[in-house]
Every structure is written in C-alpha cells, then in structure tokens.
Amino acid sequence: MTLLIAGGGIGGLTAALSLHAEGISDVRVLEAVPEIRPLGVGLNILPNAVKELDGLGLLSRLSEVSVATGDLSYYNRHGQLIWREPRGRAAGHRWPQLSIHRGRLQAVLAEAVRERLGPDAVVTDTKVVDVVPTDGGVRVTARHPVADTVSTVDVAGLIGADGIHSAVRATLGPGEGPPPWNGLVVWRGTAWAPSFLDGRSMVIAGDDRRRAVVYPMSAADERGLTLMNWAVAKAAEPEAEFEAADWNRSVAPESFVGHFADLAFEWLDVPALIRSATEAYVYPMVDRDPLPRWSHGAVTLIGDAAHAMYPMGSNGATQAIVDARVLAGHLARAEVTEAFATYEAERLPVLTRLQHSTRRRGPEVVIDLAHERAPGGFSDVREVFPGTELEDISAGFARLGGFDPDAVNTTMPPGAATGVRAHR
To answer: What pTM was computed for the model?
Structure first.
C-alpha cells in the first residue's frame, strides 16, 4: 500500500522510519519547504520516546549529538531549590533522557529515512492543500510553491504530521482558526557558555509571572564551552499582538533581556546567557484545543497536528515520536482505516488529558505554588510543600505522560533486540 506523510519534522520522519521497520516501505514524506534545514532550538526527548528511537537503531547516533540529562530542578526567583529529581537512567529508566538541538535530531532522522527508504523518500516543495476520500483510500492534492504547480495522487492513506498549522487538520475540520494564545510570550535561543551545576542539569527558575528554562545540548568544545538551550517567558504587554505562531521570528536579545535581569544566580546567570546568544526567537505561547477525533477514514493526525500543547513538561516531540511508533504498529496488523481508528482509540484519550495538564502548567505548577505560598522565599521548602506534595506532582505527571520508569521499562521497543516486533 502507498502511504503519504504530510510533514518532514520529527513526527513525520519517525513515522516513515517506523513504517519501514514494520515492512511498509511504499512511503513518501511530503515537506512544504524547498529544502530541509536544521532549524529550531532545543528539545528534551523523554525516555519513553528514546526507547522508541532505540528500537529504530538510532540511539548511538543521537547520543553523539546530545546530552543525557541527569536531573531536573525547579527554583524560585530567589534561586532557592524547590524540587530536584533524577532523570533518565539516573531515575531508573533503561533509556536516557536526551537534550538535543531540534535541527540535529531532525538531521539524524532525515539521514536515516534516505538511507533506508531511498533518496526520493522525502519530497520537498510539496504542501498538502486538499484531501478527498475515495473508494480505495484518499485523493491528496498538493501545491508546489517553488515549481508553481499543483499535483494530485490517489493513495491508501495519509498521515498528517504537518505541525500546529496543519493543512491536513484544516481540511478535516475547516474553520478552526489560529491556535489560541494564553497571553504569554516566549523567547528562545542557544548560546555557547560554560556548563553549570554538574553539566547535565536542566533547570526551570522563576515565579508566577516569569520563567527561565536552561539546559546543555552538547559536550564541551575545545574552548570549554557547551551549547546551551535557553527559554524565557513572561506575560505579554497589554498592547502586544501576535497574528501567528512563527517559531523562526528572530529578535535582538537586548529587546527583552531586561525583563529577566534579576534571574542571575551564583550558579547560573540567565541574563548573561541571553546576551551571549548565537540565535534568539520570539513567539506567543499557543496550543490547540483537543479534538474529538483525529482519524477520518484513510486520514489521521500525529504530533502537533493532532495535539499541539504548551511546552510544559517536554512532551511535544516526545509524544510525536510515540504517536508514530504506535501508528506504525497498528498499520502492520490491520488495513488503513481500521489501523487509524485503533491508533486514535489508544492515543487520543491520553493526549487529551496531557493537553489539559499543560494548560494548568503541568509539573511547572510547583513554581507557581512556591510563589503563591512564599513570595519572599523560604528557609525550608518542606514548610511550603508539606508531606509528599512535590513527589506526588512529579510522579503524577510522569504517569500521565507515559514516562514513569515502571511503564517505560516493562517492554522492549518494537524489534530492538531481534528485528521482530515485540508484543506491546
């Protein structure tokens, strides 16, 4: 059967590799841009997704261009530790958590797709603009902006992996409009800087109005510097307007660094890191409302096209990878429409709950609570969070996201050891 994947990002490329691993090789990835380039900033790939990438034989390559995150810590705006937890193998997972530049992850996936599915498996300058059901599957119409042409093809199925502005989603549910904005503005970038804490730490610091996220994505270079991802967020000014979520809108660090001037700690100077940025971008914090369904006959959605969520808890790319692997497994066992329906039944309820959780700040709610209960700081965090409240918040989100050690470690990823699909 011929399958098309709209979107050559993390989810789309993983879907192509997963289908190939299941013996489905008549697959094409349609990418709207004329050339896939390593854009973006940092991502954290949680162990449940790293497990799936290991099942595709990619962990060794990815480990060379990433950092195995050792711990995650939350601090208040005074630099006082609220909560620290081990991550990845340090937390008992059989797989690491990886901090990686999005462009590097995409490059590894794209190279593997071309190696395994052939050099023509990724078709650029091809944007899906219309989808019509047929007796045998779906008719897909695509526009080729550079070539200034339009093409139409009949295929067995279409997987929409084309992101938060998904054209496939728009054809399935016209009139949805732009992604809703929660009033927060995010600035993100990278910088080469000395490592902090133990060199494998991810930190989130701030209060209920401002927040900074920082983590390393590479080993130290010959200068002793590490490629850092940083992200800062605050409520927008009343007059601020954003017409679209554009992840590649460049901005000068000096235009916003003043908002975070006091987030300078002995162990990490956030303003200095921002000022040394090699790249900086601004965008509104947006997501998508949960959908009642993702699959319509021979068409389905994965990743941000299905369930775009706020970046609270590192679940965007992680869940797209898991989507792709689950979907491919169902396609190996059933015809397209049945496989799409069973994939949706397995994944949609879980992701809907996760979307709602990120709207409540996910695990980062501990920073809000710390500020609400002790705005001037504290001498003992246990006086602010009695009992097991912090542990319960962390463990609850891990279970919701499917990355608690017990869930991740119970089964091997499909085909990891034997080349034969493992029982899920």
So the answer is: 0.94
